[in-house]
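Encode chain A's predicted structure.
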Amino acid sequence: MGKYFGTDGFRGEANVTLTVDHAYKVGRFLGWYFSQDGHRARVVIGKDTRRSSYMFEYALVSGLTASGADVYLLHVTTTPSVSYVVRSEDFDFGIMISASHNPFYDNGIKVINGRGHKMEAEVEEKIESYIDGTFGELPLATRVNIGATTDYSMGRNLYIGYLISQATRSFKHMRVGLDCANGSAYAIAKNVFNALGAHTYVINDWPDGTNINRNAGSTHIEVLQNYVKENKLDVGFAFDGDADRCIAVDEKGNIIDGDLIMYACGTYMKQQGKLNKNTIVTTVMSNLGLYKALDKAGIEYEKTAVGDKYVNECMVQNRYSLGGEQSGHIIFSKHSTTGDGVLTSIKIMEAMIEQKQPLSKLVEPVTIYPQMLENVRVKDKAAAQEDPDVIAAVKAVEESLGDDGRILVRQSGTEPLVRVMVEAETDEICKKYVQQVVDVLVANGHLAE
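Encoded structure for chain A:
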């Protein structure tokens, strides 16, 4: 991770740690970098519903066109739609303005390369050096070389059409709940499910610039749980602010997180002969219960660092077809290069309809282990994690848990936090062992004041 760009782009509080000047310079550099040797770069930009997204959009456009790039605006759309349009319509790169599941006052700049993947780290490093003034001056485009800006809302419609084409069956007679998180999904998800014939029930689809993710969407799944039960729906899907993740709710109101989604879709894909190399890619945060269930189902798995970026890299390198995170970033590599919440919901519907089973039945073989995660704000993430006493405390917990649980201590990619996670057979055991490690962090003076 760099100074500004983390595992999910350049993210920060709008006009505090992520400013208009930052956005302008990102645009200036990328417009110049991709417009070399007489080539005029073509870039597509999407944004979510945050109040500050318009501000950053205009700043990026100013920088890009000043460097000679032509800009095409998708307006409010999802992150996976930007990825899709970049690779299907032959753009040089794309930019999504979003802070995903964060509150409205945060925002972010996600840069997507010409193949629809997250931009290479070496390019991000060069952007950072330009922002800090160590890269040198860049020439300004003049006269006919100045870039132009074009409304490209049709690109969003192309993506909607693509999603509809991915369904193998009509959703007729299915009662489906959609929680759009007052974010990007509001402009896409309902249209897709209506076109596929579902009886669609939609909540949190009235964005006002400040209500994105507020008591809504995949980070507040209890809202959709209650809605599904109250309206006796067959299934519900909750998205985050930029709709690159999906958490489902079954017909009983139970949460179906990313781990359970991967199990339901992975076992179905295995039956269909579509699970490449019989392997699912997970992160180290996936639940122990998932692995035990995959073992019984005869499915292999790999574990990566936390972040759908790393899941995708592993999938590309090994040509795997399914991977994701517990948080709901699910990647179907045949159809997408990034997590796609609406596509994930379509794939879950396919597994349910083709097998004639409710979602609760599809995930029944998985027994999720209780999990406790404690975020500890520290002065120095590396020093805290590398403290010999902390390492010893973690080792002691590992030995105590044996094969009946696990502990994971890792640094946050975006905040000054050390995350202590324990999975075990009971909540009490989880709490006990998390506290043992946190106590060592406190005793050795690592906590931030």
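The chain has 15 helices and 19 strands.
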